[in-house]
Each structure stands twice: as C-alpha cells, then as structure tokens.
Design goal:
- The chain is of the alpha/beta class and 484 residues long.
- The protein has three domains: 85 residues, Arc Repressor Mutant, subunit A, CATH 1.10.10; 115 residues, Aspartate Aminotransferase, domain 1, CATH 3.90.1150.10; 242 residues, Aspartate Aminotransferase, domain 2 (3-Layer(aba) Sandwich), CATH 3.40.640.10.
- The protein is 40% helix and 15% strand.
- The chain has 16 helices and 19 strands.
- The strands form six sheets. Strands 8-14-13-12-11-9-10 form a seven-stranded mixed sheet, with helices on both faces. It has a four-stranded antiparallel sheet with strand order 15-16-19-18.
Length: 484
C-alpha cells in the first residue's frame, strides 16, 4: 500500500467534479466515480492508496453519504476499488488494464489511440546506423565487467563538449551519465534532499518531477507562470528569498508544459538569489536543443554559477528518442563522485551499448537536431491552425521551441474533457496533472509530436467533444487510460 488520502485532500483533487451542465443530467454518483477514475488514469491518485471513509468524503464534498456509497460500489464493479469490511477501500488496477512504463495504467487495447498525453517524438532515421556502429565499438568493452557508474568516457566527453560549445566550459569529470533525465533528477534528489525538505517548483511543471518530489516527501512551494509571459522576475526572486527552499527545480528552456524561454538577465539573478539564501538549483535542460523559428537560446544557467549551486540535467529523450534511456548530470567533479556513490546503491550503471549509440548520435547532432526542428515547426503550425479553426475560444501562446502548447480553455473543463476524449480515441493530459491539488482546470497541454494529419484529426475530435460537454445527456463511462 502507498498510504492514505484524506477526505479534504481527495475533494481538492476532484475539483469541479459535477459542475458541467451536461453532467448534471447524470447521477451524481456516476460523475463522482468517473472523476475518481480520471484521477487514477492520469496519476494524480496512485494505485494501492486507501480512500477516505464514505462519511468523511461525503462531509468533505458536502453531499449525501448515499452518493459516495453508490460511487464506491460502481468503482468496485469496474475493478478500480477493493474493499474489506473494517479495513477500508483501496484503489486498484482493473483486470483489462496494464501498468505502462510511465508507472500509470493503460487499457490492453489502446493501440489505435491518438496519444496527446506523451510529449515525445518517434526515433530519427539515423538511429539504426548509430546502433550498427555501436555494435562495432562494443568488443573493446567486453573484457571488463561493464559497470561504469559515471558513464563511459567517450559519452562523458561528448556531453562535456556540447556544454563547452554552448559557452559553458565543462570537463568529462563534471558529467555523470544516467538512465534518462528522470533518473538524473531522482539521483540528485537522493543526494541533495532529505525527506521532508523544501522545494520550489514552477506551476505548471513537469508531472514526473512532482512525482519524484512526492517520493522524497518534499514540502513543495510554487511560482506561478503567466500563460503569456512566463516567469515574473520580482515574484520569483521574492519567493526564493521568502521561502528559502533547500532546492529549486526549474525548466528555463522551453518550459514543460508552457514552452516559455527564460531570459539571460533572469537566469543570472536567479543564481545570485539562490546563492544568497542557500538554495541549490536543479536546472532541467531537456528541451534546450529544440529551438524553433531561429530563436536564440541564452547561455546555460550554470554559466552564472560560481559556488556550485547549479546542477544541470538533460538527456536524449526529446531531441532523439525516448527509447534510448540516456541522460546526464552536469555538476562539479566532487558532486559527480558523490552522485556516483549514491547511484551504486540504485542501478550500478547505464548500459554500455546504449551509451555507445548515444555517442554516435551526438556525433551527428547537427543534422539530426536540424531535421527535428523543421519537423516540429511544421507540426506546431498544423496544430495551431487546427485550434484556431476548430476551437477559436481557446487561448494559446505560440512557443518558440520545445514540443508542447499550453492552451487556456474556455472553461474549467480540462479533466472532464480528457475523460470524454477517450470515447473518441484521443488521449489528453489535463491541466491539473501539471500542478498541485486540482488546480489548472482551465488549461490543457497539447504536444505537437504526432504527424500533422493526426494532430488535425485529434483537434477535430476534441472540438466535437468540447461542444457536447455542455449539452450532452447521460454520460457514458469507460475505464480510463494512461496519461504520461
């Protein structure tokens, strides 16, 4: 079991679970059960967590206990809840679903879904030739044990050279290779954050970062990003000085999910403020290579660091391929050694063959990344055009890079829209997935990583569902699926 959620906590997560006119014509117990399934589907409510007692949840929602009892009964019937007399009720995985690699769950028959829940591209054509070349390099490593906690030297040098080319002199000793960017974040948190430590994050932010922080039982404070402008400098710096967190996790390059780019002047001020209050900065550079429309990316945040306060993390998933689980940490050489000592108690090392593939991809980075930028610009513009035509009431700030749009909807319907979209074969990541306690219901993340034709088709289906939400009769419910 992973713990218990209290009535007031679940009420905050549920938000406006029965506020839509179309859903008012459905029984409240069905709307409540569907909302709980939605929370399970997008990871805001974990599997194996004990739900509040019926009376407690009824009081928190200000509804009758009969409604909660009926909702729990429906959840048991659909396989989302297990109950034992005198012990309570726990969330569970339905029998016709599986746990996906994201840690969330998905139906067994979801292959035809237009998946706008995952912001990642398919593999580039150069991957196959890189893999073949890597197998030719592999024999020279076979005489050893194959454990390289900081990574093979060729890859660490290649990553260090990329930082140096961006204006941040870096040696291989300052690089540790990890099994993806999320793994890099987890290792940094293990080293730098004691359970219950304080962390400042942007709102909205990357959901899996929030999950990693929850795993460390972190106390989280947030800095809200403006939908059209991003970071408000005085507010961000003031929050740092006021809360004095142990860590701050920021995504300055084409922020996920908003796409904002932090200006150089603010980067310098954030580093200075962090040093003054004793805060270490974790800078997620997952999207740094994916500038669009010729946008110039400012110097790395670590450029302004003189006191080893900045730890940068990045990886191959966004510009190359998510199936190549290669990430890295850039820090001071002593910090890298401490991270390696932490790592050996977790997974020992990253696969040598995958690292060799990464070396060859990085050697061809200029051509691969240039192709990715062209592809993403075309797909972004197709998505923007479809939204302008089909959903003109939605507000979208055009991102200058990255892979996602952050859309402000015409009402607080994000979670309801995501549940309804499953019925027409579209998977969405609702806004609350990117924040805390059920906020951001007016927002939706829309990645432009699918082919342009699929994006246009998905928007057409979403538009039909959006207009149906306000006038639909009885809601038809189905088991929800993974949102990653």
């Amino acid at each position: 079991m992973t713990g218990q959620v209290r009535g007031v906590q679940l009420a905050r997560l549920l938000g406006q679970w029965h506020a839509l006119p179309g859903r008012r014509r459905s029984p409240d117990y069905a709307a409540l059960a569907g909302s709980v399934r939605g929370l399970l589907a997008d990871g805001r409510l974990p599997l194996g967590v004990r739900l509040p007692a019926e009376r407690e949840l009824a009081e928190a929602l200000r509804i009758s206990r009969t409604t909660v009892t009926a909702a729990y009964r429906q959840l048991r019937e659909t396989g989302h809840l297990a109950s034992r007399r005198g012990a309570g009720s726990w969330t569970m995985l339905p029998g016709n679903h599986r746990v996906a690699s994201t840690g969330l769950w998905t139906p067994l028959d979801d292959r035809e879904m237009l998946d706008l829940g995952v912001a990642a591209l398919a593999a580039p054509p150069q991957l196959l030739s890189a893999a073949r070349a890597a197998t030719e390099d592999l024999p020279r490593y076979l005489s050893g044990a194959g454990y390289h906690p900081t990574g093979i030297i060729e890859l660490r040098e290649a990553v260090a050279d990329a930082y140096t080319a961006r204006g941040l002199p870096t040696s291989a000793d300052q690089i540790m290779v990890t099994s993806g960017t999320q793994h890099a974040l987890d290792l940094v948190l293990r080293l730098a954050l004691a359970p219950g430590g304080t962390v400042l994050v942007e709102s909205p932010t990357y959901p899996n970062a929030l999950a990693a922080l929850a795993g460390r039982r972190a106390r989280i404070s947030t800095h809200g990003l403006a939908a059209d402008a991003g970071w408000e400098p005085d507010l961000l710096l003031g929050t740092l000085r006021q809360t004095r967190p142990k860590l701050a996790y920021l995504i300055p390059e084409f922020q996920n999910p908003t796409g904002h780019l932090m200006p150089a002047s603010l980067r310098e001020r954030v580093v200075a403020a962090a040093h003054a209050v004793g805060t270490d900065l974790i800078i997620d550079e997952s999207f740094v290579d994916l500038s669009l429309d010729g946008t110039e990316v400012p110097p790395p945040v670590a450029t302004y660091d003189r006191h080893s306060r900045v730890v940068s993390i990045g990886g191959m998933s966004k510009p190359y391929w998510g199936g190549l689980r290669i990430g890295w940490v850039r820090a001071s050489a002593p910090q890298v050694q401490r991270l390696a000592a932490v790592r050996v108690g977790v997974d020992m090392a990253s696969p040598v063959l995958d690292q060799l593939v990464a070396v060859h991809l990085l050697a061809d980075a200029e051509a691969i990344v240039a192709d990715r930028r062209v592809q993403l610009a075309v797909q972004r513009d197709a998505l923007l055009g479809a939204l302008a035509h089909q959903l003109p009431e939605w507000r979208v700030t055009v991102p200058r890079g990255g892979v996602t749009l952050w859309a402000e909807l015409d009402g607080p319907v994000s979670s309801a829209l995501a549940r309804a979209a499953e019925e027409v074969g579209v998977r969405l990541a609702p806004g609350p997935r990117f924040g805390l306690d059920g906020t951001l219901e007016r927002f939706l993340r829309l990645p432009f990583t699918l082919p342009a034709a699929d994006l246009v088709e998905a928007v057409g289906r979403i538009a039909a569902i959006r207009y149906d939400l306000d006038r639909a009769g009885r809601q038809r419910w189905r088991e929800p699926a993974v949102i990653a």
